[in-house]
Write a structure and sequence with these properties.
Length: 342
């Protein structure tokens, strides 16, 4: 499959033999597509954050399994493939959810059929993510509609990137924003830069492409804007939500939740059900990824300076007004209603 033939807006596309991704490490300065042809390609794409965002990581991992079984679909190979992909990122539960789903389906399949089954199941995971995020947009739309009065602009604050670039389509935190835009509701997004990787620039890029008014801000400006009453609603994504409603998202999210609570601004988390880890009792049990010091550009300053670089923080359920999923909106402490089988 030729990357040049792929729609620029697509985060991931495949043809049953290879996968093409939009390389997010090159955005916003360049729009570059990369072909994934092997397990190693898929693992690198996830680890190096060429793809990022929990839902998209899960879909890419599923396709990575299919790529990894191209020449050998044995149980031993399947286990090695899943172990390789599982080691790429520790916090995003969608990665492990997708891998376990692939393992379960493939172990139940005849050996001769596994390659085709792997592609079919990976495709199903991607399609389901697209549908789930569209539903998140519709379920979150009333949050914006209730704020809109007499055509006043609704000011939404977000953090990191939980838009189309973080998913197969539509986004999570930004899905209600896109739904509001489609409904003719005037909406403006405050986009925090999200240090140290500046992933807020990805949000600004996709909002610009979509024609949604937005303003990029320094991370530390968020509290001031909330204090000044310039924010009506905060919506963020999540990489893992514990059973009690504690939510892990890109580091800096917790500070926004604290400031939102201090100034009476609703704070919502938007994520598909695959992001909820019902086996994880609370945020204290969520593994927090520690990334390399090089992301700070330390070499430019003093390379001898010790660096701590946690990629995520955890917002306690008590600070979350509600969690928006494809099933609707629930209080953070009432996620049991969404547990599989209920």
């Amino acid at each position: 499959m030729s990357p040049e033939a792929t729609d620029y807006a697509a985060t991931i596309r495949e043809d049953g033999n290879s996968v093409v991704i939009l390389d997010q490490t090159r955005l916003p300065s360049e729009t570059v597509f990369v072909s994934l042809n092997t397990l190693a390609d898929a693992a690198h794409a996830i680890r190096a954050m060429q793809v990022r965002g929990a839902p998209l990581i899960g879909a890419t991992a599923a396709y990575g399994v299919a790529l990894g079984l191209a020449d050998d679909a044995s149980d031993a190979r399947l286990n090695r493939v899943i172990e390789t992909l599982a080691a790429t990122r520790p916090t995003a539960i969608n990665l492990h959810w997708a891998l376990e789903r692939m393992r379960r389906v493939l172990q139940e399949s005849a050996l001769a059929a596994r390659r085709d089954v792997a592609w079919k199941e990976a495709r199903a995971i991607a399609n389901e993510d697209e549908a789930a995020n569209a539903a998140i947009g519709q379920n979150g739309l009333p949050l914006i509609e209730r704020i809109c009065r007499s055509g006043d602009v609704v000011n939404v604050m977000t953090h990191c990137n939980a838009g189309r670039l973080a998913t197969v389509e539509h986004g999570t935190a930004l899905a209600p924003v896109y739904a509001a835009q489609a409904a003719g509701i005037p909406v403006h997004v405050w986009v925090s830069e999200t240090r140290p990787r500046n992933q807020g620039l990805l949000t600004a890029w996709e909002l610009r492409e979509a024609g949604v008014p937005h303003t990029l801000i320094a991370d530390n400006a968020a509290g001031l804007l909330l204090m000044q009453g310039k924010v009506d609603l905060v919506i963020v994504g999540a990489d893992r939500i514990a059973a009690n409603g504690d939510a892990a998202n890109k580091v800096g999210t917790y500070l926004k939740a604290l400031a939102a609570r201090a100034h009476g601004v609703p704070f919502y988390v938007a994520a598909p059900l695959s992001t909820i880890d019902f086996a994880c009792p609370s945020g204290a049990a969520i593994p927090i990824e520690e990334r390399a010091a090089e992301e700070f550009g330390v070499a430019v300053g003093n390379p001898a300076t010790p660096v701590a670089n946690p990629a995520f923080d955890v917002t306690p359920a008590a600070l979350i007004s509600g969690i928006v999923s494809e099933r609707g909106i629930a209080q953070a402490g009432e996620l049991g209603q969404w547990r599989p089988g209920t």
